[in-house]
Write a structure and sequence with these properties.
This protein is an alpha/beta fold. It has 2 domains: 13-243, Alpha-Beta Barrel (TIM Barrel), CATH 3.20.20; 246-303, no CATH class. The protein has 12 helices and 10 strands. The strands form 2 sheets. Strands 6-5-4-3-2-1-8-7 form an 8-stranded parallel beta sheet. It has a two-stranded antiparallel ribbon with strand order 9-10. Helix 2 runs parallel beside helix 3 (80-87). The chain is globular, with a radius of gyration of 20 Å.
Length: 309
């Protein structure tokens, strides 16, 4: 990868933990999550937010394996600049930016990051951003936010905050219908800007893995490519649902083999297992196999880097 080029990492599971709680931070690496987030925002008490900065940075070198992220506090809190200055370093793989409502928010943050990149001897523009869209205003601006491609590698749906912003008078009740517009819309915004599908918001029913699985299936069906996790026990379910079904992987190989033979004979429209196959389906089959290969490579890296010899 050339200097300054932003990678496009696989992120099925994005697991958060409060940066100032050592026990929870230690559990991140062994969780199996593709990406982990040391949180300086909602999971940290106001009085602990500034001390948590140094704790988060000090923890990064010991968290090898998954993609390492830090969530800073949003613009408007007065904490963002200090959070970024403390967080940016070669051991950090990405910044998570909450409550993005306007592409100008990303421009401001980009300037702050560049100052820290220069101080740390990092290539300008090297540190990617995961942009959290979690208000009705953010959903309305999602097309423009997704097109800030200088650093943004994923849109993340902040469904908890969005549910609050929508002012539905329930904590335990379902918000599936209320969130449907934003949950589906950010998929089109991300894909229209050339980004991968977004990362879906968390399932707040921490102990109910059946509810989590159902929620994952809804998000995956809409086009989300991963999900925020708020407990390590959620990670295996999320990774399974947001990876390709083994039967689909096998069928994709069958499609490519059959199509290759058809092409050699001068054909480009065939039937495989009762499904009509032409070039668009072939391209989809290739993507499925590429995703399976990417997952295998990520799992190998996590095993190797997370458990050094």
């Amino acid at each position: 990868m050339m200097a300054g080029e932003i990678p496009d990492p696989l992120i099925r599971s994005l697991l958060f933990a409060p940066a100032n709680e050592e026990r929870k931070v230690r559990r991140l690496v062994g969780s199996g999550a593709d990406a982990i987030v040391l949180d300086l925002e909602d999971a940290v008490a106001d009085a602990e937010k500034i001390p948590a900065r140094a704790i988060a940075r000090a923890a990064l070198p010991g968290l090898r394996g998954p993609l390492r992220c830090i969530r800073v506090n949003p613009l408007g809190t007065g904490l963002t600049e200090g959070d970024i200055a403390a967080a940016v370093c070669p051991d950090l793989d990405a910044l998570v930016l909450p409550k993005i409502e306007d592409p100008r928010d990303l421009e401001i943050v980009d300037r702050l990051i560049r100052v820290s990149e220069q101080r740390e001897g990092m290539a300008p523009g090297a540190l990617p951003i995961l942009a959290l869209v979690e208000t009705a205003r953010g959903i309305a601006a999602a097309d423009q936010i997704a097109r800030f491609r200088d650093r943004t590698i994923r849109i993340v749906l902040g469904s908890g905050d969005l549910g609050t912003d929508l002012a539905r008078p329930t904590i335990r009740g379902s918000l599936v219908d209320a969130l449907a517009y934003g949950r589906g819309g950010v998929v089109y915004s991300a894909r229209g800007a050339g980004l991968p599908g977004p990362i879906d918001g968390p399932c707040l029913h921490v102990r109910d893995l059946a509810a989590l699985e159902e929620d994952c299936k809804i998000g995956a069906a809409l086009g989300h490519t991963g999900k925020v996790c708020i407990h390590p026990d959620q990670v295996p379910v999320v990774n399974r649902i947001f990876g390709p079904d083994p039967d689909e992987v096998a069928y994709a190989r069958q499609v490519l083999d059959a199509f290759q033979k058809a092409e050699a004979a001068g054909g480009a429209a065939i039937e495989v297992g009762g499904i009509f196959i032409d070039y668009p389906i072939v391209y989809k089959a290739r993507r499925i196999l590429a995703l399976a290969a990417s997952i295998a490579a990520v799992e190998e890296r996590k095993a190797t880097e997370g458990n050094p010899a």
